[in-house]
Amino acid sequence: MKNFSGKVLFLDRDDINTDEIIPARYLTENSKEALQPYLLEDLEMTGFDPRQDIAGKAAIVTRDNFGCGSSREHAPWALEVNNINIVIGVGFARIFRQNMYNCGLMAVQLPSDTIEQLFARFAGKDTTVTTDFEKRKLVFSAGDQVEELEFELGGFDKALVEAGGWIGYADEKY
Amino acid sequence: MGKTIVEKIFAEHLVDVPFEDTQVIKLDAVFCHEITTPIAINDLVARGLDRVFDPDKIKAVIDHVTPAKDSKTATQGKILRDWARRHNIKDFFDIGRNGVCHALFPEKGFVRPGYTVIMGDSHTCTHGAFGAFAAGVGTTDLAVGILKGVCAFRTPQTMKVNITGKLQKGVYAKDLILSIISRIGVNGATGKVMEFTGDVVEELSMEARMTMCNMAVEAGGTCGICAPDMTTVEYLWPFIKDEFSSKEEALTQYSRYCADADAVYAETVEIDASEIVPMSTFGYKPDQVRPVSEMKGTAIDQVYIGSCTNGRIEDLRAAADVLKGKKIHDSIRAIVSPASPAIYAQALEEGIIKIFMDAGFCVTNPTCGACLGMSNGVLADGEVCVSTTNRNFSGRMGKGGMVHLVSPATAAASAISGQLDTAQ
Ligand code: SF4
Hints:
The complex is a heterodimer. Chain A is α/β, with parallel strands linked by helices. In chain A, 30% of the residues lie in helices and 22% in strands. Chain A has helices at residues 18-21, 50-53, 74-80, 94-102, 112-122, 155-163, 166-173; strands at 5-11, 57-62, 86-89, 106-109, 128-132, 137-142, 145-150. A 7-stranded mixed β-sheet of chain A has the order 4-3-2-1-5-6-7. Chain B has 2 domains: 1-276, Aconitase, domain 3; 289-417, Aconitase, domain 3, CATH 3.30.499.10.
């Protein structure tokens, strides 16, 4: 995965489910690109307007159990076609997490107090995140606030991200 | 050290341990439906990998939107149909023979104790009721399953859910699983297989076990699982009678998939079934659960009976017992969708369909339809549905709609009252 730098969308809630990420009514689409306008359309949170708040964002920071619910890979795809390649949270639902890495995207887990701090220091501000995958580092900054964080990546997750997903990896190996 | 059911199944199917904590296993079955499979097919075709690992181990059905409601859903069906023909997938179920995947495939005998199954559908966990490991996966995992017959999982941990006591009359597997989810939370079993044990589980029918395992994913569980026993053998007997000389022999064989007495569990949850009463969800998360008695009088617009959770014959019987000789309330509408053609035919034969129709229900063909807000009973903004399905997420049955998850008996009683109500 290439390193990147971009704005951060903060979603301050546990258990954001795949129906909220991409509603079932759009599952009849047969291309990833067609999902682009509908990301997070059904997520009702005070102060969040999907039409305004997603544009220009490159990363999501959220709480626990993000991506619970259905197995639809349309959820990572809807993120991907909106140029969001990384979601950072306390924890993820199993299928969603695997789908992210299978697509070569990242679902990064950080301890809950670290996430708490990120929300406290950066939510509601014009925050940028810069990634360094070699060093497993994320740098958050807003104005003169800067925070550098390290994250872990399992062996399998790393292999998938490097192979650009599971199909290429599995076809060669099994 | 002893093993849990899933540890035994994984050990038997292990292909590779590419990294610590990652196990690649061989699959006995790959199930497919028309929402998540067509994209996998298109992807494989685009990569020049339009092959299947074994056409006899792939089972496919058009179930989510059937009959097709528009050109897009017709195209999804067509991609699946053409692919099944092209690869000689004999177990493909098209309209007239189709039903909700997790109701149809078990009744065809496609799942056996010790099997490993994946499908691009989160409620694949249902099939764990047979003592199998069955997990929902995304489209990429599905594509690799179709191509190679393998899937990678993190080494599974097991949560033991031990259910003792006695279920009261009028309390069903649905009430039980809603109570369990409310106790452990929507994230309570993430990364774990939920192994249901105890006297109460042993007494449950296969239908009831499927209802329980179906909702394991609503607590984050990878799979629900019940040890195979004589109930499992009896259910499967028509399909396995040539493989074994007697039911006892089948049971002995399948018993190797029961957990060892000294198996190690990541966690154990004790449930006293005697304390459980009819339950309903009240919010937008499946762990927001309350006794129906505390929610009596909640206004509703629609009642829905069906789905992979509660659209089986036992469920229709339980609802019909409540509805017999009664009419649904004027102020609401009610829909029942038997989950497979066999269930529909059985319900017809037993006079259950007539009871539903006399009560004022609309009887639809077997389909997922309204369960995921795609067809056959979608809610309007602000409407409330009492439903026997498994998800009450905001917008699940239609944007702006609210869903209360209940048992079929509670759904039927609510249809009569015109508001949330118990059958007791
Ligand atoms: S009935 Fe509902 S939950 Fe079950 S497979 Fe169909 S859409 Fe999914």
